[in-house]
Amino acid sequence: MNKIKLRATLYSLALILLLITIFLFTIIKDKKHVLEEKTSAHRALLRNSFDLAMLDTQKGLSELACKIAGNREVVDAFAAQDREKLYQLALPLFNDAKARGDVDMSGFIGADGKHFLRLQDPKKFGDNILKKRPVLAHAITNRKIVTTLDVTIYDVSLITIVPIYKQGKFLGVIQTVAKIDRLQKRLDAHSGIKSAIAFDTQKLKNLLPNAHNKIYENYSIVSSNDLLFEKLPNTFSFKNSNRYTIDNYDYVIASRALTNYNNDTIAMMICAFDVTEDVIEYQKEIRNLVIISFLLVAIIAIILHYGFQILIRRIDRDTKITRELNKKLEYQLHTDHLTSLPNRNALIRDIDAKHFYALILLNIDNFKEINDFYGHTIGDAILLELAISIQEVIAEYPMHLYKMPSDEYAIALIEHMSATELEAVRLNITRHLHSQYYNLHGASIYVTVTMGMDFALKGNNKSFDLLVNSDIALKTAKKRHLSYQLYDETMQVKQEYEHNILWNKKLKEAIEENKFTLYYQPIFDSHSGEIVEYEALIRMIDTNGSIIAPGYFLPAARQSRLYPLLSRFVIDEVFKMLEKTSHILSINLSVDDIIDKPTKEFLLRKLRSSTHTSRLIFELLESEGIENYSEVSLFISEVKQFGCRIAIDDFGTGYSNFAHILRLDVDILKIDGSLIRNIDTDSNAQTILMAVNEFSKRLGLKTIAEFVHSESVCNKCKELGIDYLQGYYLGEPKPL
């Protein structure tokens, strides 16, 4: 009996031990799974928190840079090189942004790459650090908005660079800078995340040779908000996201590659989240379970029963918390905070994941004026009301609405429609929106919109092209003053960009290799037939030796900072020719040349050093519109002191207004070829030319007819009393 009892006891003990073992194994496995789920949740939290902090920092920098670049008084002061006024105008905007914690430094860099003004250090200017700061050279060369991570001469920073223009002329850039610790403070304040920045050690030494930092895998820790990053274990790797124990604390540590404007990895962001409490809780629960298991063998089944229920509830609770946190971060990243509509990030995400058949971009006309006149409160209210109006009208169609940056919206078609059906829908949307009046704070405001649209190609749905092409269509509609534009390949916007880039490259190479020359076209006295002067015309020498007319490269030069170099080349060559010959020579000058201080000073120096200035004529382009009378009039007065004469070129293509000629002390009117081309057969052109000639004679001005291309045109110009003649019929441009 005793043997049986002992055997039964042993069997029972064995069974209980087996149950305990299975129970403990199961519990430990499940608890470990819970810990791993929490760790995964923390990894997701690190990723999403970093993205949100980065976007928040970029937003503050971009808002300040765009606000400064869009301020007309600031732009005027920058264009006038008035550093003191520029500082007075920009400093309040900078201080406001700095007080909000959006920015640490900001400054203006001229088109020549020199620091014109540092708002945080106004006494320091004139230095050129383009070699140390390639991103500045990149921004000035490309003249586009750049937001990137960079190593400045002060610190590692996130920067935004925005180009500044005045009347189409590139003046330079405004740079806004937030030190990297602002991003780290946001991570710590919003999510309790510790962080460090590690830069490529070799690149850091090139920029900051005296830096001494902790190095991991060829990366140097340059900024951190916790000492734990000085104690990372030897097993730490940037490639993996793992849990580490440091000084008896447990952390989930993950790395994120940070890229610059060239998409080169220049740094790694290391983020750490303290999970010590989770690990302690896990260890404590395991220890308590083992003790309870051995003390309460008799009720093991009950413990297992209720234990599993508690475990399931905890898993559900932790999973729910993690899910809600991720949902909140996902919402913030993909939702417009004002309208609560999906934002541009959401559109890009959906374009990659879904099939869109068409995309319409809407932009509010003159929204800046509405904002400036009524204020941002009403401006925001209009954005909200317009979003509601759009949702109302598209509710019956298979369409999704997205809020794009600023005053722009996107409507995505998610089901197939024919072109005719979609056009009818678009017209319905337009009619609905243009029939609305928004009564806001006592003001009744009427809003119109401009639309750009593109279809996805059937069977070849390149969804991301929809956004690019719709944006091109929208910009084209704005440029052409249309309310709507459908994208098509004939717009050739991309080809135009490629063409400009090609000619910019050829121009730069030609300037570096001095591949320019001057041709001179004779101008004849209509009575005696003798040559009275020569007009200097620039030509480019191609790599194969052929001569390229200015119509090919001057437009590209005007859009870049290379145009003043060409103007100075022409001026220099003409003054050399004055020394070699006894001819009267004329130079074409644009208003941009006159208001460009270096070009004007260069010309005045040449005039002071020459003894032949009385044989020089300056032709001012009337086709550009002589708007700045004070500067143009001052220039005319200055050059006439040297005995130079002034001609208005392309007369009849600009304002065509005699009144503004009376205000300028000019000597010659060059009548544009558009009036001369058919003067022998066009009675209207003859009437205009007689009026111009009569007007000129009364004022004592000489007249020159351009584009004299045939004998009949030449004879008609003589008959109408034109003083001088110029054109291919009489003489082509050639080297002298």
Explain this structure.
The chain is of the alpha+beta class and 736 residues long. It has four domains: 2-54 and 297-334, no CATH class; 57-296, PAS domain (Beta-Lactamase), CATH 3.30.450; 344-489, Alpha-Beta Plaits (2-Layer Sandwich); 498-725, Alpha-Beta Barrel (TIM Barrel), CATH 3.20.20. Helices cover 49% and strands 23% of the residues. An eight-stranded mixed beta barrel has the order 19-20-22-23-24-25-26-27. Strands 7-8-6-11-10-9 form a six-stranded antiparallel sheet. It is elongated, with a radius of gyration of 37 Å. The N and C termini lie far apart (134 Å). The model has no long low-confidence stretch (mean pLDDT 83).
From the coordinates shown, what is the CATH architecture of the largest domain? 2-Layer Sandwich
Number of helices: 23
| N- to C-terminal distance | 134 Å
The residue-averaged pLDDT reads 83
Proportion in helices: 40-55%
Q: What is the third-level CATH name, the topology of the largest domain?
A: Beta-Lactamase
CATH class of the largest domain, please? Alpha Beta
Shape, please? elongated
Structural class: alpha+beta
pLDDT below 50 for ≥5 consecutive residues: which ranges?
none
What's a quick, concise take on this entry?
The chain is α+β, with helices and mostly antiparallel strands and 736 residues long. An 8-stranded mixed barrel has the order 19-20-22-23-24-25-26-27. Strands 7-8-6-11-10-9 form a 6-stranded antiparallel β-sheet. Strands 2-1-5-4-3 form a 5-stranded antiparallel β-sheet, with helices on both faces.
